[in-house]
Amino acid sequence: MRVGVVGFGQWGPNHVRNFRMVDDCDVVRVCDTSPARLGLARKQFRDLDTTSDPTAITLAPDIDAVVVATPVQSHFALVRQALEAGKDVLCEKPLASTVAECRTLCELAAAKRRVLMVGHVFLYNPGVQHLKIDLDRGELGRVYYMDATRTNLGPVRRDVGAIYDLASHDISIFNFLLGAQPAEVSATGGFFLQEQIEDIGFLTLTYPKGVVCHVHTSWLNPRKVRHLTIVGDHKMAVWDDMDNLEPIRYYDKGVIADHYSSFGEFQMILRDGAITSPKVKLFEPLMHQDQEFAGCVRSRRTPAASGEFGLAIVQVLEAAHESLKNQGRAARVVAS
Ligand SMILES: NC(=O)c1ccc[n+]([C@@H]2O[C@H](COP(=O)([O-])OP(=O)(O)OC[C@H]3O[C@@H](n4cnc5c(N)ncnc54)[C@H](O)[C@@H]3O)[C@@H](O)[C@H]2O)c1
Fold first, then answer.
1. Does ligand 1 come within 6 angstroms of the Cβ of 280?
2. Strands 143-153 and 212-218, how do they pair?
3. Is residue 39 part of a domain?
4. Is 192 helix (H, G, I), strand (E, B) or coil?
5. Which of 5, 92, 163 to mutate to test the pocket of ligand 1 (most atoms within 8 A of CB)?
6. Which residues constitute the domain of residue 163?
7. Are residues 95 and 160 in the same domain?
């Protein structure tokens, strides 16, 4: 599989490094509109062909698959061009700026019978995959709510705000773990460093079966935190993506409502049991994601992080922005 990577900024080099290690894959060419970034690409990967013209990848006959790792506003045009030229495409998250653009790309990929995958890398994170298996097995019982924190100082983006950039990860995790799309989202935030680009976001999402999910996201925070708490009626879980030793802890804790007297009164009995940490075999999520893309291209499978999965995330992001404009008034997430 001959791969071309468009965008060699912060993230693109990671794709080049990983695809060079994927079986039967070769990174043939890298494109960036910045001469400085191309100079760096040649220094880092001496045998790599470089270009400042994206069509030398999206339309090139010697390229089978295209990775798009440029800022969000450029995704639609680049992905469309590559799909129209018959390439399989892995596009970084979010798939595009609007739901309408995402829909066009999904329809085009289907019409051309091409693989369209979105870089929702947390679907390939060992901790998230472990939680998914245990949730599907019913280990936590009925899920009441999930609460995520994703904060750090920087990197501050100039093209999209913290909700599109960072909360997109947590929404992808919620959707994946619950196997569902929220019906409603309410979002508040704060604009401190730039006009119309939020630095912080607080999102509350309402999922089917009454599950409530919340995320606090920020690039203007002193601490790097990547936390997810899941509260079920049987057990509770905390996943800390920064903890390499014990990333997941299960708390055998809960509350049982019990009959208190014969007059129909209840008492809440607290159950406070063991805390256990399962063995989670760590691996680089991006490597697994890129391997999965190559596997899907070879076998013509649809990846978990498909174009449709990416479209669903942008539906939530669009609704979140509508809510943000309306001071947190809940906005409906329009399903495709
Ligand atoms: N999955 C993750 O964890 C993760 C992490 C970081 C970034 N990303 C995503 O990767 C994408 C890129 O992010 P980044 O942090 O690398 O951004 P960046 O700004 O550091 O780099 C983008 C690069 O693309 C180049 N570029 C812009 N327009 C171009 C065009 N039309 N053709 C060719 N090159 C062009 C720029 O010169 C720049 O070097 C974004 O979609 C972002 O959301 C994902």
1. no
2. parallel
3. yes
4. coil
5. 92
6. 134-283+315-332
7. no
